[in-house]
Amino acid sequence: MWVIFNLAPQGIFVKFAGSSCTWFVFKLLIYCRIRFGRWYIRCVRPRDPKGVFEVKSTNGDTFLGGEDFDNTLVNHLVGEFKKESGIDLTKDPMAMQRLREASEKAKCELSSTTQTDINLPYITVDASGPKHLNLKLTRAKFEQLVADLIRRTQEPCKKAMVDAEVKPSEIGEVLLVGGMSRMPKVQQTVQEIFGRQPSKAVNPDEAVAIGAAIQGGVLAGNVTDVLLLDVTPLSLGIETLGGVFTRLIPRNTTIPTKKSQVFSTAADGQTQVEIKVHQGERDMAADNKMLGQFSLVGIPPASRGVPQIEVTFDIDANGIVNVSARDRGTGKEQQIVIQSSGGLSKDQIENMVRDAEKHAAEDAERKELVEAVNSAESVVNDTEQKMTEYKDQLNAEEAKALQEKIDELKQKLANRDGLKAADIKELVGTVQQQSLKLFEAAYKKMVQNNQGSQQTEAPNEEQKKEEQK
């Protein structure tokens, strides 16, 4: 029995697992929470009737929540009062506090009525005497004011479905949690996104608290029929040749999990490798958060690409990551243990995801260039080794022409200013075509030489037999 303790986003699922999980068996749940200063969405799939819930994906906006709706309304009231009286209430802390309280109250009232009165007598005073704020606010006007905020809830919902690899038609229930989810326009927007009415089976104000209480029971060992399978908030991987971030465990992978991948050395005679563990969504390792590093030493000297280094990421139920590197040839192994999430807060995680999306095109271009350089260096190394090995069988003029192309490619790789991946790929293609033609001719020559040698040996054998007679 295990559960990842994350009070706000997960309590609602624990609440359902403890009270009515049978009703939701085999349905995909969408959980939307808009409250205080955050907007969360999670896709959750119940695994069996015994209260096992698997988190398929997580998304959200840490800069969107109920306070943003309050602030929008406060700014509207400040503007209206200034137009009427010419007084700026933002310079009066006491008046601003009363405006915030009145705005929150009006916001709540407009969830159940189409119009409300905001009446604040003696809101401030000037030389002419006390001033009062009294105006009517309709639901339509409020929805107009917060239209941009509501629109911002759409993208996280769509991304959560993409990450979970589900379509709206595959969703069984949509649960809304948090006081702001009572707003009719929010409910309408959610219905438009998922194509179904949100479920009203939970109290949006109590769900998180009840779920947290059940989780407390789980942690204390008093509740044994709840299991929540969480996911990795960010991708985990290592830095590879050229500073590329190679993912071993993608974001939103269900934990516990274990993934392995085989790597090799980048230089001839290399006897140790540095394993740098990173977490993030950028394509270049330097742009992500480094969680730790260690060295695997004692690798027998060999040509680049020959040693086999198996790197394994093992994440347990508590989110603790164990990273190991083992040389398959010698059996030597080193490892490092990294605590859950690498010390990142929810806000930092979501900021890193947004940062990756913002720089996606730029990162893809940089990664393509690095991979092209790595591929080119590998082609150069392999081709020169084969040219040395089969030197006697190669056509001298063609070998010289190929070496000139290789030298041109080396020069390009040495001076990378303004270099583009397409330029490297074009040169690599030329080198590969010329080398293929050269080595095909050398192979045919070797076959002919072997056949001629066999024909020469046959008469010698017959001659020996005649001499023996």
TrEMBL record:
GO molecular function, one term: ATP binding
Biological process according to GO: response to stress
Keyword vocabulary terms for this entry: ATP-binding, Coiled coil, Nucleotide-binding
UniProt-annotated stretches for the region Disordered: 449-469
InterPro entries listed in its UniProt record: ATPase_NBD, Heat_shock_70_CS, HSP70_C_sf, HSP70_peptide-bd_sf, Hsp_70_fam
PROSITE patterns listed in its UniProt record: HSP70_3
Biased composition (Polar residues): 449-458
Coiled coil: 366-422
Domain of life assignment: Eukaryota
Family: Belongs to the heat shock protein 70 family.
Name of this protein: Uncharacterized protein
Lineage, broadest ranks: Eukaryota, Metazoa, Ecdysozoa, Nematoda, Chromadorea
